[in-house]
Each structure stands twice: as structure tokens, then as C-alpha cells.
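Known limitations

C-alpha cells in this collection are predictions and should be treated as such. Users comparing against experimental data should check residue numbering before alignment. To illustrate the layout, the record for caffeoyl-CoA O-methyltransferase is reproduced below. The input appears on top and the generated C-alpha cells appear beneath it.
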Amino acid sequence: MYENIMQIIAIDLDRDAYEMGLPIIKKANIEHKINFIQSSALSALDEILNKNDNRGSFDFAFIDADKVSYQKYHERMLELVKVGGIMVYDNTLWFGTVAMPEECVKEIMKPNRQHIIEFNKFLAADTRVQISLVPIGDGITICWRL
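Generated C-alpha cells:
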């Protein structure tokens, strides 16, 4: 019988985040399909990119990491995700603050808000992807790799 060869690469500095979901992963019998890398995402992605057979081999990527580096993740994912693949960025509405006047935004929200606003503008102008901003939860932006 044909078995789907799907593999998942999960990158996080905090192994506890992965282990929290491990009982469910084991129950679903997919632990063997997940490669957890405990590392900063940028260095892990650089290492993955150093293996040339990885370029253009990803079908899907979900990015929910430090907002300051979203554009750096995007550039790396464009090399990894194949044409026709999908990249999804989480928190692109940043609690709705991206649409608020600056004076209405709480101070704690302002630094990441500005990075998200800049990233959203960058994605809107990026001709390498077609985007759809989905107002679910804290906002996700779906990018179709062209």
C-alpha cells in the first residue's frame, strides 16, 4: 500500500513547547514523521538551506516566531517552498493594532506592531507571492508561492 511520505520540521528554542503536544502526536502515531529542531529559527533554516536538495522541496510553511525577523524568514522560505506551495504567517493583525491610530495602541504592543505593519506592506508589494490576509484570531496571512 502507498504510504504518504510527508515530513514535518518543527523549530523552536523551547523543547517544552514541542513536548506539550507530544502525547497527541504519539496517539496519532506520527512521531516518526516529525523532526524537531531545538534552535533559533534563522540558524536552523540556514542549515536546512545548506543542503541543496531542500531548496524548492517544501509544500507548506507556518511561521509564528519573532516578528522582527518575519522578513528574514520570508526570504529563506521563498528558497525552501516550491512554486505553488503555501507560506502562512501568524499574528499579522497584531491584536487589531495594525489598523489603530498610533495613539490608541498600548505601549507594550507598539514595537511588534510596527514590525508587523512593515512586514504586511512588504508582502503586499512582493511579486513572488500572492497573499490573502485572513482575519481569524490574531490574523494570518496566506502566501501562495508564484
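For this record: The CA atoms of residues 45 and 76 lie 7 Å apart. DSSP finds four helices and six strands in the chain. Please report discrepancies through the issue tracker.
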